Amino acid sequence: MKLKRYLGLIVLSGLLTTAQAEEPAIRQDYITGALSSFPFDRHQFAEVAQPLALNQASALTTNQQIIVELAKKAFDDDSFALGMMLVERGQILFQQFKKGTDHKTKFFSYSMAKSLTAMTVGQALCAGQFKSLDDRAGRYAKTIDQTVFGQATLRQLLTMSSGARAPDEDGGSLFGEWNDITTSRISIDALLKKYGNDKANANIFSYNNSDTNALMLAVNGASNFAQLFEQKVWQPSQPEQAATWLTDKQGQLYAAAGFGAVLRDWARLAMRSIALLKGADGSCMTEFMQQATTSQTSDTVKQRVWDYGYQTWVAKKSWGIPVYAWQGAYGQSVLVDPAHERIVIIFRYKAQEASYRAVGGLFARWARMPTQ
Question: CA quadruple 159, 113, 209, 121: dihedral positive or negative?
């Protein structure tokens, strides 16, 4: 048993794929607000009058001191790190910024937005707007009904198993997709209709932005994705500052990426995910979040450290700890240990293997520590 736990720790400390390790740097300001402002089309979500208290811990336990020292070293050693935070049971143990960033900086996410999309789908299901996750997406998203995405079930889309052909890039995009959407050259509907005639094998994991965007279209067909996210995910997290989400030319949220918020509000969103998992919105959402944050499928083509739940990276069962992660390009991570309500958040503008291992290692160690 000790050997198994030790091996799980070593594996978890990787927290990366080869593609992530070799990823080039992006412009720093793309992560710190440029993509969350003009001239990019975006939807804004307002802050609340009384934000959820998120205070600095007044004193640290011995175990917390150990983890904070590891976090300081990991952050200082990472020349591409921009902001980092550790939270335990609603208290900040560590937060640090550099390169001109601070608590007002809007940190832009890429694929971390996918996990926010999953929570919104769960809310649509539990509100009765979806009858079942085994419904075809095209039942609700009429514009893509005849595509592979419309023929896929909501569950297949949640698990990146639509059966669409593999995307062109490791990050799940088609060539030119990002520029075409964010510069209003094409709508998400049109992109999926153009792309959705090519079929591969359904129920086989293939990381694909279009699966996520098809979920957004399905929610829009049954309700209103932006409103549902705001009412059931964003506002209940009690944020302190406004957030933004990139849209296409029709004002539809680019569900696969594009959400930007300050670091403390990223923490509040992670806390909201834990609250949903623990029953804050009733048994339906608890069941959905349990499925979303545990292994539903694995990549059988590309070797990965994580398994996949619903638009969320999740611990392999062999690890023996029930943790999950929101991950994005260029080194973004929100790592969540729901049992102890422990959260690690880091934003970078380049992914590096050493940094992934350092942060993954401290998270793995922390998740196995008893509460003192």
Answer: positive
